[in-house]
């Protein structure tokens, strides 16, 4: 029994070391330069109500270490912590191409691969988003919650809401 335990331990040590090295290599590879777009809190965890561990100022140079949902784990002169993605621009500080920045903002495409990224999606995992399929029944259910312009106007009038201009979609629109 003792020999088996020794053999198992001897096999686990190199396996654990290999996994540690692979993780460290992945983290090293994932590091990317960034710059703070605005002053924000550095948090201990990627949650809005997490403990504050520091702060970044607008224009601070950052190293992006990891990403989780709509958050980046960053390292700065002020320390290390999690910050909202919307507070960080990827790329080197001081190197900006205004035309490219406008194009990125208008298309949602970022990075060298021009991959579309979205923030603010709640309740859906990446796997669920990738597995999403057209479902006519669910679409009809969602459309059932719509109201006519007349009904919306009457509701607003009852509630004392002010009218705002809004272009409604045509009633009969084609389906893909």
Question: What's the quick description here?
Answer:
The protein is α+β, with helices and mostly antiparallel strands. The chain has a domain of 100 residues: SH3 Domains (SH3 type barrels), CATH 2.30.30.40.
Question: Helix and strand layout, with pairings?
Answer:
Blueprint: H1 2-30, E1 32-36, E2 40-43, E3 52-56, E4 61-68, E5 71-76, E6 79-84, E7 88-90, H2 98-107, E8 109-110, E9 115-116, H3 126-130, H4 136-143, H5 149-158
Antiparallel strand pairs: 1-4, 1-7, 2-3, 4-5, 5-6, 8-9
Describe the structure.
35% of the residues lie in helices and 23% in strands. It has 176 residues and is α+β, with helices and mostly antiparallel strands. The protein has a domain at 30-129: Roll (SH3 type barrels). A hairpin with a 4-residue loop joins strand 8 (109-110) and strand 9.
For the termini, the CA-CA separation is 67 Å
Strand order of the largest sheet: 6-5-4-1-7
Structural class: alpha+beta
Number of DSSP-assigned strands: 9
What keywords describe this structure?
5 helices, single chain, alpha+beta, 176 residues, 35% helix, SH3 type barrels, 5-stranded antiparallel beta sheet, 9 strands, extended
